[in-house]
Amino acid sequence: MRVGLIQLTSTQDRDANLERAEKWIRQACSAGAELVVLPEMFNSLGPAEVRLKAAEPLDGPTGTWAAGLSSELGIHLLAGSLLERISDETRHFNTSCLFDPEGHRVAIYRKIHLFDCDFPGAAFHESETARPGEAPTLARLGQGPELGLSICYDLRFPELFRILALQGADLVALPAAFTERTGRDHWEVLVRARAIENQVFMLAAGQVGASTKSLRWYGRSMVVDPWGVVLAQAPDRECFVVAELDLDAQRLLRQSMPVLANRRSAAYAWPS
Asked: Is the pTM of this model over 0.90?
């Protein structure tokens, strides 16, 4: 299976963001991608007041755009994340939507872990405008592998990825806007760790460059295999990358080193 990751520098201009995203999606498809993953908040990215204003229903302009493009190109398209309007207009969800090759929305994941951080160079308070999701999401890609969904800060919570793996995930998509300050030390380490410990392919598509005056995004979008090998990594600019996933090799690895089967769940108790 061939996958593509899109790396963007999104701004507050939704139409311009979608135009650039479409250009890279078409190029990834020309390179053979059957599944394309967009980064977090790919359609609009900015400070809190911008994020709240940019929220739209899932069948709004961005969702309609993604459905039409996936149908036209005959691909699975993960609309990385967009800001989903909810009835409480002082809050939104940070939501990934998966579209199938017929243009149907077949999975919805609302980001569980909101990025509230005061670390110098990475200060951000997502909960000012966002409401957290409540449950993991898994979706089968047609008759192919199972795709687990996650978003950015979720990467620091390994229990989510273990649950997805135990539920049958073969691949996990991670749309992200990882800060440059934390990304240069943690991004690759964490993405590779999640792949190795769960024997999954990690599809981590990030924002790059600066969308605001105060924050820079790390980029370095990556495809990592279940052994932790980096199959593709993006340079420090807007672009796409593609990689071939060897699902047969993954099955052999899981048979020869059955990490998930060797768990001893009865011995694990959550601290009170």
From this structure: yes
